[in-house]
Amino acid sequence: MAGPAQLVFAGKAHPNDDTGTAIIRRVFEVREALGERLKIIYLANYEMDLGREICAGVDLWLNTPLPPLEASGTSGMKAALNGVPSLSVLDGWWIDEHVEGVTGWSISKNGGSDEPSQHAAALYD
Prior knowledge:
There is one protein chain. This protein has two domains: 1-46, no CATH class; 48-125, no CATH class. The two termini are 26 Å apart. The protein is α/β, with parallel strands linked by helices. The chain is globular and about 40 Å long. It is 38% helix and 15% strand. The strands form two sheets. It has a three-stranded parallel beta sheet with strand order 3-4-5, with helices on one face. Strands 1-2 form a two-stranded parallel sheet.
């Protein structure tokens, strides 16, 4: 039987990335609001050694950038190199390197949309 759910966030926002900084701030707000109902952890100072350690315990790597905004996708590559399947939009490195149902799954079969509501619907589908 599986244990209780927990969410682990790690990453860095560029100092000029207001959206990324706001998302990280929101993670802390939600963690505070939920208290002990859901364990949420944010790992600061995310570097290669920490990335290797946390990948060892990951069941699925979820990556949801809005196409066509995926950069190089190094976090997904790191997960793949550590044997973690991905669930991601068909963008960036994932469009060329994924094998559907083998290395993971695509969120949308046609690359998705840059419209947030359509992107969310594709994820839930």
